Amino acid sequence: MLTVQHRQLYSGGFIALSYQLFISLLILFSALGYSANSLAQPLHQQLAPVDLQLQRTKANPALIHQQYTWLAHAKRPWKICALLPHLKDAYWISVNYGLVNQAKRLGVHLTIYDAGGYLALAEQKSQMQHCYLSGADAIILGSVSPTGYAHDLDILTHQTPVFATVNALSQQTQQQNNLKGMVGVDWYQMGFQAGHYLAKKHPKGSGLTQIAWLPGPLQRGGTDPTTQGFLAAIADSDIQITQRLWADNGKEEQRDLVYRLLSQSPPDYIVGGAVAIDVAINVLQQPRFKHLKIGLISTYFTHGIYRGLLRGRVLFSPTDQMVLQGRLSLDQTVRYLEQRDPVYRLIPDIIGLDKAALSQETVERSLSPAQFRPIYVQSPPSSAAHN
């Protein structure tokens, strides 16, 4: 498997691969939904404009649907911190890839911190203070809690501008000054899309259908709005939630829930976060559970869910385009720092996916390349020119 460094060397033409190995790599990456061109895309190539919704200023909440055009480069090598809840699953690793990729394109310094999980609010606040004390020009925050910074964002960051990514922030009025921008979708709609898919299959009067609901950590990340959206979508259907199980988004924690669920009272469907569904795919292949006919639906998209969709083991998943969100957050931050037509809020489209709807463009805007591993520090070359 190629490392990030090897991929860069390959794209620059500095290493020679045998013909056989080259063909093998093409087959491997094509099976995962990536073309050779997308993996070796030169960083100097300008990204194509993307359709999304945006809110130009904090004062005016009106949303406009239009194309977003990317910056070509930064005017100086800004020092940016990004705080992420964790890097335990492919979702946040894909956000990491988007952040790093755009930092390389623009030529800025990026340091990424991993809090370790959605229960690690104190750790994330400590990391935020470190960003401020180390002289960061801006902080990109994937918060571990929507209300975790309601009263102390200004104390932790002083005058450092903050940009929320993926996870929304709920703040007191006096804390709003430091929040200069947001990137992310409404997770209510992520849950609603999953529920709507099921409600169409099992409308009122079609017969009671039991599901288990495993959205992830209780009252962390987007689980609350996801749950509300899902419940709204199934309200007028024959879907009945018979079990609700909560745990942090680690594979071990979610595997324990799946084993408990299947050993006690197997439902007709398991619906939940990608980690739970990815675990369930594997558990359901074990001999003692292989006889069970359980449908699997994810509330968000990852590499494991992608493979599950391709193989028919996962029925449906929405994607909020995680790589795109990482890129947008970095681009939005530099726009603000340089006052180059800054935009307060950027909202990518949520795209519903099943086996028949897996376009390469959507996959590339959602998932990091298969060989990518998290990067925590990205610095521009010392010789990089900034206008």
UniProtKB/TrEMBL annotation:
<protein>
    <submittedName>
        <fullName>Periplasmic protein TorT</fullName>
    </submittedName>
</protein>
<dbReference type="InterPro" id="IPR001761">
    <property type="entry name" value="Peripla_BP/Lac1_sug-bd_dom"/>
</dbReference>
<feature type="transmembrane region" description="Helical">
    <location>
        <begin position="12"/>
        <end position="34"/>
    </location>
</feature>
<dbReference type="Pfam" id="PF00532">
    <property type="entry name" value="Peripla_BP_1"/>
</dbReference>
<keyword id="KW-0812">Transmembrane</keyword>
<dbReference type="InterPro" id="IPR028082">
    <property type="entry name" value="Peripla_BP_I"/>
</dbReference>
<comment type="similarity">
    <text>Belongs to the bacterial solute-binding protein 2 family.</text>
</comment>
<feature type="domain" description="Periplasmic binding protein/LacI sugar binding">
    <location>
        <begin position="78"/>
        <end position="338"/>
    </location>
</feature>
<keyword id="KW-1133">Transmembrane helix</keyword>
<dbReference type="InterPro" id="IPR014301">
    <property type="entry name" value="TMAO_TorT"/>
</dbReference>
<keyword id="KW-0472">Membrane</keyword>
<keyword id="KW-0732">Signal</keyword>
